[in-house]
Structures are given as structure tokens and as C-alpha cells.
Design the sequence.
């Protein structure tokens, strides 16, 4: 399976900046520098159309959205629907990112609803999980990851396994490693990814073949070592994906 390298631009870049980064990225990708990798880019909403126009021609590259609301349309002030995102060129979404869980207080049950909603409507989902430092120090790693996976995926287990294999990716991002420069050590990544695969295997339809990405302070300098670890099927990159050169170096690590 090709390693998946995903860029989460978070709340960064206006449309011109996003277009410039996407153009640089497209030039790097079409120069064949990404062979053997699948690439995903999650720009802010207003830049999705620009970015998908630019990256549309790149092989093995998809554009997604960082959030959406699970309803067709209607009185949901400030929210955005999957149809609007599809119209702009996005066909993947992030669900459960730690900033949505902890800053915006999205619950396990809302995340389950969003995951089920998107997967049932031909969108792919990168479902993010991860423990806080307090949870890790309190010995709750297994409990937290088990709860986040079991509850988050509870509504999707009746969908076909082939759809889940094609459209569902898990991203393990320890909250204490996000944006802190503190990448999880080899031992922690191996332990957490083995645990995630184990919990996935125990779901009603054995989901252990789903790709599991690592995220949290990934940089060009540590990407290769992370990708070489067992059960690490790719990377979800924040800060180091904002510059095309740095993200291309991670893609090619
Ligand atoms: P950083 O790579 O900036 O630590 O962010 C990780 C992340 O949250 C990606 O979704």
C-alpha cells in the first residue's frame, strides 16, 4: 500500500497564498517527486476551490475539508454542508481532530454522527484520535484510544467493509505532540499504533487493514524514521505542510 502523506493547513493562508503553495506543490508532484505516495491536502474552506483547481491534475492527490456539518442544508448558522464542499472540489473530510475535540468541544457522539454521515455520502474520512498529556500520564492511553475508536466508528460498522477500506483512514495524533515540536518517540508511536490496529481488529468487521497515519510535529527531518515504523501507514502534517518545499521533502522522505 502506498504511504499517505496529508497536509492540514488549519486556519492558515488566504486564497492567493493557498494557490501559490498549491502551484508549487503541483510543480513538485508533476516532476514525479511523489511517486509511491498518496497525497492529501486540507486547506481552509475558502481556498478549497482554488487548491482543487490547481491539484486536480496531479495523480494520487486529493483535496479535502477540515470540517462540515452533518445535514443537507438549512438553519445551521456558520456551518458548511458536504454538497457545498463537493461543489468546491473536496471529497474527503477530517473528523475528530484534537482541535475540534478540545477547542470546539465536539463530542464522541457528534463525531460518530459526522463520520457515518460523510461515509454514507461518498466522502472519505480521516478520523483523528489521540490522548492528552494528562490522560497519558494517568495511564489512560488504552482507554482513551479504545473509546475514541469504538464510539467514533460505532455508526459505520454496518457499511460495507470494502467502502470502509477505500474511504476511511485513522490518524493517531497525540495531543501533546501537536504544534509543540515534541514528536512522539519511536516507542510511543509503536505502542500506540499497535494498540490502534488491535482495537480496529476487534471491531465487528475487523478493520485492522485500515491505514493508520501518525501526526504531531512531523518535519522533513523526522518523516523518514516515522514512516519506517511498523503500523505507520502515513503522516498527517500541520505546520511543516504550510511551505510546499517542506511538505514535498516529507512526501519524498
Ligand atoms: P503539527 O504538525 O503542526 O504538529 O500539527 C499536527 C496536526 O494537528 C495535523 O493535523
Sequence:
Amino acid at each position: 500500500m502506498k504511504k499517505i502523506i496529508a497536509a492540514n493547513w488549519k486556519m492558515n493562508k488566504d486564497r492567493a497564498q493557498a494557490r501559490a503553495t498549491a502551484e508549487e506543490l503541483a510543480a513538485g508532484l508533476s516532476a514525479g517527486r511523489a511517486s509511491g505516495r498518496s497525497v492529501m491536502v486540507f486547506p481552509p474552506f475558502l481556498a478549497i476551490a482554488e487548491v482543487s483547481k490547481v491539484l486536480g491534475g496531479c495523480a494520487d492527490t486529493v483535496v479535502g475539508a477540515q470540517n462540515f456539518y452533518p445535514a443537507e442544508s438549512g438553519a445551521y448558522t456558520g456551518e458548511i454542508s458536504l454538497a457545498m464542499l463537493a461543489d468546491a472540489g473536496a471529497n474527503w473530510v477530517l473528523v475528530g481532530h484534537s482541535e475540534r475535540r478540545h477547542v470546539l468541544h465536539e463530542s464522541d457522539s457528534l463525531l460518530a454522527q459526522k463520520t457515518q454521515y460523510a461515509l454514507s455520502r461518498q466522502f472519505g474520512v480521516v478520523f483523528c484520535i489521540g490522548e492528552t498529556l494528562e490522560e497519558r500520564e494517568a495511564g489512560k492511553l488504552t482507554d482513551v484510544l479504545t473509546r475514541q475508536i469504538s464510539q467514533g466508528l460505532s455508526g459505520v460498522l454496518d457499511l460495507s467493509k470494502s467502502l470502509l477500506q477505500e474511504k476511511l483512514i485513522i490518524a493517531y495524533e497525540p495531543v501533546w505532540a501537536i504544534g509543540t515540536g515534541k514528536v512522539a518517540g519511536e516507542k510511543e508511536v509503536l505502542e500506540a499504533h499497535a494498540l490502534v490496529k488491535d482495537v480496529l481488529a476487534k471491531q465487528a468487521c475487523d478493520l485492522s487493514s485500515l491505514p493508520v497515519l501518525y501526526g504531531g510535529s512531523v518535519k522533513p527531518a523526522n518523516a523518514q524514521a516515522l514512516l519506517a515504523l511498523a503500523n505507520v501507514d502515513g503522516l498527517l502534517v500541520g505546520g511543516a505542510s504550510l511551505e510546499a518545499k517542506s511538505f514535498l521533502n516529507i512526501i519524498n522522505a
Remarks:
- Residues 15-33 form the longest helix (19 residues).
- Residues 8, 97, 173, 178-179, 215-218, 236-240 surround 1,3-dihydroxyacetonephosphate (CB under 6 Å).
- The domain at 3-251 is CATH 3.20.20.70 (TIM Barrel).
